[in-house]
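Hi D.,

Good news: the full-assembly prediction came through. Inputs first.
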Amino acid sequence: MNIAEFFVNVFIFPGGLFAIMLGLLLTGLDRKIYARLQRRVGPPIYQPWLDVVKLSLKEMVIPKTANYTVFRLAPLLGFAGMLAAIAVIPVAGIYSGLYQSGDLLVVLYLLSAPALALAIGAAASGSPYSSIGLSREISIMLAYEIPMLIVFLTVGMRVGMELGGTAIFSLSSIVNFQLSQGSLLLDLPMLPAFLAFLICIPGILGVVPFDIPEAETEITEGPLLEYSGSGLAMFKLTGGLKMLVLSALTVALFFPMGLGSFWLVNLLWFIFKCVVIMFFTTTLIRAMQARMRIEQAYKFYLLVPTALALISFVLTAMSFRI
Amino acid sequence: MGELLQNIVKKSPWIYRINAGSCNGCDVEMATTALIPRYDVERLGCRYCGSPKHADIVLISGPVTAVVKDKVLRVYDEIPNPKVVVAVGICPISGGVFRESYSIASQLDTYIPVDVNVPGCPPRPQAIIDGIAMAIEIWRKKF
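Then the structure:
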């Protein structure tokens, strides 16, 4: 692959500029639909863009107790991780992913970048509220990574066994397999894994009922407490990108089908699928639920999605033993 | 800065509440402007935020009591510039029913530059939203 193509993929399409735009669009739609569910008028759909512009124009206050370098660099870590993740995930009919092998495990590592960035920023800020948020962030991360890992293993095993061999973690192979053999969503043993992955999404995004690390009414936004101005804008961008990465990953793992061969139709279809996933995993749950306590969320993630993912794992493994 | 940027910025004011010894009446009315569909303040692009570091417009309620005065000043200093202050209710404006009390420091504007006064005990949600709209106009010119 030549250098120019690499830069276009990472900085313009589908990473970089395009991903930021789409991520902010998802955030804006989420806020608008959330307001409409509560019968409010709500902010306009382009509100996140306005917020980011405003935040980057404001003063950035750096607390006296903070470690300056780490405090300034932490937001970049999460942002860069998400940009890299979106460049790796293939979208059927539009984009085939940056690397051909081993991408799913790379995505698993990159997905923990925003949470780690939050934790590092919180630790560097020197605020007691931030450190409570930090400990909550890490414990909920430990809880949701287990079911997520089992889901990835199940998908990799299913595709790998079908293609005759060991587990395959290449995202492009997983997408190509589904394009030729039908999507994994229609496969009965994979259904629990799909549900488990959907349940993990609000935890990774940190929205109600799992916004415990950033609970603004009890620990005043936790790790984000000391951030202002451009640092906070960076975290807002990362949030939008995270939503996009998770929807794109769900689409790639479970129903990557495109519509026809024209790229624009495929692109709109992909955006539509992202919005549907976002609506059911984020907006609807956020509008219906209240915040959990940290030990409730921890127990929930270790019980429900882990059990679902394990059921799927065992069923898939059994179907290949005979 | 350019007119365009001012027009963009004007649509995203984030609100922070400081309770300077209020009886909670004004705070309930402020919560009303955020939570009740009829007075939705989010349609102006506002968001009630939990941290003073994220705020643009500060709503201060309550007579400034002697105990809470220094804390109010400290939180006010933590808010990044440019910022605008709205005094909600009659208490921060004149002391209200607590005016001559031994435990009241003084009116709010002896310590902090107040941009908009919203009198009332408590003020109606419409009045608070009107005050926020006036504050947005003042705030926009500071960029």
